Amino acid sequence: MNVSESTTDTVKITIAGKSSFIKIEDLYGLVFVMCDPEQQMDMMPVRHTTIRKLVRWHTVEVKKDMRKGERLIVKCETDVPMTVEEGLRADVFKKRKERSRFAI
């Protein structure tokens, strides 16, 4: 199997001496159809984002509709993405297992 020089979205496949160019999307679809459900799950593209919740407390001084000088304490929660991993499901989860195995 060779990647075509003329276009980057096709590959050249030679079977029994006959060559043919096929789109990478079509090849991926063919392989996906031939797999069992577990292998199909591993081939699915995923995005895994590690999020850290940031909690802040804010004190607000009210000017109207309440007695002047009264204060409200407001809790604000924000999700902050720490890392984003994209790839095939099998690759992303394999990397996560390797990192968690060595985590302190």
Description:
The chain is of the alpha+beta class. It has two domains: 1-34, no CATH class; 44-104, no CATH class. The protein has three helices and five strands, in the order E-E-E-H-H-E-E-H. It has helices spanning 24-34, 37-43, 89-102, and strands at residues 2-3, 10-15, 18-23, 45-61, 71-88. The strands form two sheets. A three-stranded antiparallel β-sheet has the order 1-2-3. A two-stranded antiparallel ribbon has the order 4-5. The protein is elongated.
Summing up helix and strand content along with how strands pair, one would put the structural category as alpha+beta
Number of strands: 5
Beginning-to-end CA distance, first to last residue: 43 Å
What ranges have pLDDT less than 50 throughout 5 or more consecutive residues? none
Provide a short characterization of the protein structure:
By secondary structure, the protein is α+β, with helices and mostly antiparallel strands. It has helices spanning 24-34, 37-43, 89-102; strands at residues 2-3, 10-15, 18-23, 45-61, 71-88.
Q: Top keywords for this entry?
A:
3 helices, alpha+beta, single chain, 31% helix, 2 domains, 104 residues, two-stranded antiparallel sheet
Write the layout of secondary structure elements.
Blueprint lengths: L1 E2 L6 E6 L2 E6 H11 L2 H7 L1 E17 L9 E18 H14 L2
Antiparallel strand pairs: 1-2, 2-3, 4-5
